[in-house]
Design a protein that fits this description.
Low-confidence stretches: 1-70
Number of helices: 9
Mean pLDDT: 82
Order of helices and strands: HHHHHHHHH
Shape: globular
Radius of gyration: 21 Å
Helix content: 55-70%
Largest sheet: none
Amino acid sequence: MPRSLLHAVLRWRMKHGLTLVFCFAVAFGARSIAQSQTQGGPSSQPPFESSSDGLPDAPQPQSQATAQAVAPEPITMRGTPVRILKDQSAIWTSPVRVRDKDLVVLVPLALASTLAVTTDHQVMSSSKLIDTSLNNQALTASNGLLGGFVVAPVAIYGIGYLHHDDHATETGILAGEAMVDSLVVDEVLKAVTMRERPTLDGAKGKFFQSSVGLDSSFPSTHSIIAWSSATVIAHEYGGPLTQIAAYGLATGVSLTRVLARQHFPSDVVVGGAVGWLVGRYIFRKHSKYFNPEG
């Protein structure tokens, strides 16, 4: 891509990135509100109980005890601290529960991370990336986009709260929890890896350097937060446009962190992967809109 065009793209992202993310947050809330009004309220039909012809199935008879046993946990702000503590326990013990079907996701992620590590020095040593103007614009763009991903759950929750839309409030709460959970993982990994930033020591990216302290380059905090938030939103509102917007903007965060020379490619690949895995887990574990058979 010509440098002039790349600069123009970055300027556009810097100027409009936060606005775009906020807009798609508002759009999600508006969409769910419209659906609840059309269906007579957010709780008028239980999720994922429709027949093959698209019509709702009749409620299945069950005892009160059974109904209480299978009822999903209500997602409220009050329950957030307990859920985060339980999720942290599940996240850190997840390697012992890996199943064969999980390898379909984990193996490609591991291969992509390995490939990125082997090319880190070559990519970050490129003269095309050693450009102060480009780096500064990319840094501003990445911060603006990240701000949008932090604002989006708050905006979605606010819309849901004002319009009594359970789907929107759940989305806002779970996206926020995913960011907190992923941030905890990020800080632990940084403390362990202690990797130098690309701007140090000729972009060699050496690990386990005590001089780095907690300012480790591995993984990318921006990427892990953006991808965890984006993943919950993309799963809660699973339409193609929502997924393209959420994952596209998260990719923009990761890309601009490399262009800003704040992170190596492997930092953002691993950060994005961890954020995606955490967001996916949070949605599948807690959302009443998760369909195990879907």
